[in-house]
Design brief:
Layout (H helix, E strand, L loop, with lengths): L6 H13 L9 H17 L6 H7 L3 H24 L4 H15 L2 H4 L10
Helix pairs in contact: 1-4, 2-4
Amino acid sequence: MDKKTTINQLKNIVQQFCEVRDWDQYHGPKDLSIGVVTEAAELLDHFRFKTEDEARNYLKNPKKRLEVEHEVADTLFMLLRFAQMANIDLSHALSRKMVINNKKYPVHKSKGSNKKYNDL
């Protein structure tokens, strides 16, 4: 479905879900930011204290993978809702940020490195 669904369609799905429940009143920037972090932390909790191999194997378990997918979806939901409520064009925002990232992390300095841009 990723290849057929636009970001705008996803934002509309989230918007409709929230509006029929009268949740706009609870979805200000602060609360949605908290929601993004909370859901991302719940995703992280699945991998806490696991080695890289253990984390990869964890995703091979169908039940655990489904739980992880739910947390990814919850995080995406909150991010989409934030963007929808704040009128942020996610494609444009990402495109602009990638221009900045390309300058911060030129291939000749960053390839194969996990250093932050100011340590390259």
